[in-house]
Amino acid sequence: MFENIRLSLQGILSHKIRSFLTMLGIIIGIAAIIAIVSTIEGTNAQIKNNLIGAGNNTVTVQLMQGEWPYDFSYNAPPENVRMISEKYKQRILDQKEISACTLYRTRSNAESVWYVDQRLESSSIIGIDEDYLSTMGYEIAEGIGFTDEQYHDFSKVLLVDSSIERGLFNGESPIGKVIDIYGEPFTIIGVVAKRSGFAPTINSVDDYFMYNQTTSGQIFMPTNDWGICFRYDEPQNCVVQAVDTDSMTMAGKKTADILNENVRKMSLDGEGETENPELGMGSVEYKSESLLEQAKALQDLSKSTNNMLIWIASISLLVGGIGVMNIMLVSVTERTREIGLKKALGARKKRILAQFLTEASVLTSIGGLIGVLFGIALSKIIANLAEVPVSISTKAIVVSVVFSTVVGIVFGLLPSIKAANLNPIDALRYE
């Protein structure tokens, strides 16, 4: 085997230009496939990180009416849904897929938010518990956060995000300022910002609007202060943090199942519980957002498009294989007398067959390795010029090299068989 490899390398080096031109189809095909697969991997990673959140792994479980979030702005709390107790929260935390859990209430597009004579339109107000900021990845950027007492003693204090700071206070410090929410004065004690762990990659205007939907900002109040402006008996929504990204779907499903016990069953005068008869189309129940499934759908769409490109690039490998077969047939013809001499000295068919198959395999393997290097370089060029993410796939590199070797074996088989079947007398007589 090693002798065959040595002879193959010797033959390739003695005809450098011819060997390179023979390998060119293999090189182009492998380079194209590596570049396409790297782009697919990079794009899929970006989709997953942007949609799900790099390292955040949070899943929102909302009270839904049919396919839409239950709107407390226009509807009273549903009679068959109780507020989520600490017992249910602890049951959620006991699930192996979940590392953190927080309960919250929210009003989107709250209109009656004023600072002096300036109204903040379309802001979101969120009533949070002690675990909300850490679970959602917020940190205090300015001022202080809520104390344990403020979560429970109706202190009428607020936290705001940087969008509120810029939009309502023109960049001035909002600490100590008073905001009027539905006629009630609340004092701002801090500004929050997302931790640096999650930073979506923005490559287009569409990406910008996708990840910047809360342009008017968010206002956070302690959960016990919620009833001052709204209703005390509003059921909460829930956010859970999965232990890892792959556990997100199951974490959301288990949380929804636990919370729906609050929906499917309701107390009857303290004498037991009965099934809710209103479940069905348009019914009120908790549902988890399927961000992982959304990411997978986008990834599948990206893959289906790029798989077509992979098949097109594979045509280059086919052409390269035909080129290998052609040059090996030429090589057999050129070395007819050599083959005849070896057979006359006792070389068997399988020896001649192995020699030419090895030469074809070494030729395409070298082409595959060069193609991998060109593919990596091409991926980097695409990343810089087209501003798309790439992720070099080790699996694709290994498969490409192995596949190029297989191409050499398959397309070198016919010339090898022809060489092995030569009649030694005819071969020695060949001019």
Folded structure, characterized:
This protein folds into two domains: 2-50 and 298-429, no CATH class; 67-282, no CATH class. Helix 2 (16-52) packs antiparallel against helix 10 (291-334). The protein is α+β, with helices and mostly antiparallel strands and 431 residues long. The strands form two sheets. Strands 1, 2, 3, 4, 5, 6, 7, 8, 9, 10, 11, 12 and 15 form a 13-stranded mixed beta sheet that branches. A two-stranded antiparallel ribbon has the order 13-14. A hairpin with a 5-residue loop joins strand 13 (265-267) and strand 14 (273-275). It is elongated and about 110 Å long. The protein contains 14 helices and 15 strands.
Q: TL;DR?
A:
By secondary structure, this protein is α+β, with helices and mostly antiparallel strands. It has 14 helices and 15 strands.
Order of helices and strands: HHEEHEEEEHEEHEEHEHEHHEEEHHHHH
How much of the sequence is in beta strands? 15-25%
Q: What is the tally of helical segments?
A: 14
Structural class: alpha+beta
Radius of gyration: 34 Å
Mean of pLDDT: 77
Shape: elongated
How does the major sheet shape up? 13 strands, mixed
Spans where pLDDT lies below 50 across 5 or more residues: 198-215, 266-281
Q: How many strands appear in the DSSP assignment?
A: 15
Question: How many domains make up the 3D coordinates?
Answer: 2
- Please give the share of residues in helix: 40-55%
**Terminal CA distance:** 30 Å
